[in-house]
């Protein structure tokens, strides 16, 4: 790969690729949904790609290499850059995984001294992300900094398998394929309880707030429905783009996901990929190139890289922050375990929310029945809030409402449709107005429970 980039030049390879994505698709129909009782994808979301590419191609060609200032920074560097004091904690789960968690202890914008322990907030990321994924907004608008500015103690998680949390008491993530034998189920029953207990111990509080996005919400559902005592430790949970029942998911990613649903195909993919789809950082090391390099500050203005994001996650040009896109694509994706995708694929195909399906024989050995048990959302009693987007094609509105109906009566304290008809799955962490549309409401709701 080095030979290609040096002898042919990156720019010569770049433009056919960019032009392909720029001209890929233009759908303008109104959004419709598959009936709840039909286990099939919703029709594709309406999508009108931005551009045109031709009007700024010359500018892209002539101005390459501009970098976003936070593009290659890790979470500690980002926190230090913006003067937020923090601590690094390692948390070991019951099954031996070692997680790195960052605790923001104060704010440069808040001089008030707390009279007692600060209320703590556990902030948990989604699939393909990590703790650095919460810092894509400018400093005064991203959620962790807003929480810290408001006087909360903020704990940024890094789930097992991410580049921040590859440790284990006995397994090597790089050479031992059994390290990767887990999905969001294990994150829910081991990671969330371990991090929660660590936060409670360090903060000296009785309950914490939980904020999760995407897979972070899946872990919340599993943890609070499967682990005894978890509901008593959560003051309230705020779930952005809730992911439980997802049978109507209609992203192009559905096709790739479904290939991994059968257990034998998952096993084959695991062997081929050594358990994971590697992070953008690994590609940067191997190829000296990342998504942030391809989608530099100029290219993103030409309706190229943003169109690919719209295709995968839902169209919302009004919320796309082109200035931040190089930073986003330099960090996304983080590591993605093959079994995580396989588990989601099974729930997509079945239109259920259940534990991993190993096939009848192994299911009988693992669960005592030929089919995997479903997660019982009736067991969740902690006050819970949903926030969902109308253009979210990974967590479609009709699936969010199916999940809401599965919750115990009185538990769901808020089921909020974001007041922007084009809000998509990634807008919850990248959208220009995420603070006005979501974060400010979370802060208002938290005041109901603040001790």
UniProtKB/TrEMBL annotation:
<dbReference type="InterPro" id="IPR029058">
    <property type="entry name" value="AB_hydrolase_fold"/>
</dbReference>
<dbReference type="InterPro" id="IPR025483">
    <property type="entry name" value="Lipase_euk"/>
</dbReference>
<feature type="domain" description="Partial AB-hydrolase lipase">
    <location>
        <begin position="76"/>
        <end position="135"/>
    </location>
</feature>
<protein>
    <recommendedName>
        <fullName>Partial AB-hydrolase lipase domain-containing protein</fullName>
    </recommendedName>
</protein>
<dbReference type="InterPro" id="IPR006693">
    <property type="entry name" value="AB_hydrolase_lipase"/>
</dbReference>
<feature type="signal peptide">
    <location>
        <begin position="1"/>
        <end position="30"/>
    </location>
</feature>
<dbReference type="Pfam" id="PF04083">
    <property type="entry name" value="Abhydro_lipase"/>
</dbReference>
<comment type="similarity">
    <text>Belongs to the AB hydrolase superfamily. Lipase family.</text>
</comment>
<keyword id="KW-0732">Signal</keyword>
């Amino acid at each position: 790969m080095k030979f290609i980039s040096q002898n042919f030049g990156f720019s010569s390879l770049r433009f056919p690729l960019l032009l392909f994505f720029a001209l890929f698709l233009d759908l303008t129909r109104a959004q419709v949904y598959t009936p709840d009782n039909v286990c099939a994808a919703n029709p594709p979301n309406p999508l009108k790609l931005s551009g045109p590419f031709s009007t700024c191609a010359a500018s892209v060609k002539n101005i390459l290499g501009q970098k976003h200032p936070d593009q290659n920074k890790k979470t500690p560097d980002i926190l230090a850059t913006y003067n937020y004091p923090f601590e690094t904690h390692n948390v070991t789960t019951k099954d031996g995984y070692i997680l790195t968690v960052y605790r923001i202890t104060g704010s440069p914008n808040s001089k008030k001294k707390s009279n007692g322990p600060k209320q703590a907030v556990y902030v948990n990321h989604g699939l393909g992300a990590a703790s650095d994924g919460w810092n894509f907004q400018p400093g005064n608008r991203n959620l962790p900094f807003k929480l810290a500015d408001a006087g909360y103690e903020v704990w940024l998680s890094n789930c097992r398998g991410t580049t921040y949390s590859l440790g284990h008491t006995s397994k090597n993530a790089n050479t031992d394929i059994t390290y990767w034998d887990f999905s969001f189920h294990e994150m829910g029953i081991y990671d969330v309880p371990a991090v929660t207990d660590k936060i409670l111990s360090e903060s000296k509080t009785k309950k914490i707030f939980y904020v999760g996005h995407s897979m972070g919400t899946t872990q919340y559902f599993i943890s609070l429905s499967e682990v005894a005592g978890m509901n008593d430790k959560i003051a309230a949970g705020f779930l952005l783009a809730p992911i439980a029942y997802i049978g109507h998911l209609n992203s192009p990613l559905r096709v790739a996901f479904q290939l991994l649903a059968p257990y034998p195909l998952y096993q084959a993919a695991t062997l081929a990929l050594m358990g994971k789809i590697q992070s953008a950082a690994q590609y940067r090391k191997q190829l000296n190139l990342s998504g942030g390099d391809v989608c530099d500050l100029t290219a993103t203005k030409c309706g190229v890289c943003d169109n690919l994001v719209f295709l995968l996650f839902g169209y919302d040009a009004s919320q796309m922050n082109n200035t931040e896109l190089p930073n986003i694509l330099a960090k996304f994706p983080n590591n993605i375990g093959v079994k995580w995708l396989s588990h989601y694929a099974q729930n997509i195909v079945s239109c259920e929310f259940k534990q991993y399906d190993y096939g009848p024989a192994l299911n009988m050995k693992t669960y005592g029945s030929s089919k995997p048990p479903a997660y019982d959302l009736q067991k969740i009693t902690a006050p819970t809030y949903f926030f969902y987007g109308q253009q979210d094609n990974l967590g479609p509105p009709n699936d969010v409402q199916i999940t809401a109906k599965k919750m115990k009566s009185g538990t769901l304290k808020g089921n909020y449709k974001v007041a922007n008809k084009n809000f998509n799955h990634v807008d919850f962490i990248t959208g220009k107005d995420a603070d006005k549309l979501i974060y400010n409401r979370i802060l208002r709701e938290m005041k109901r429970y603040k001790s």
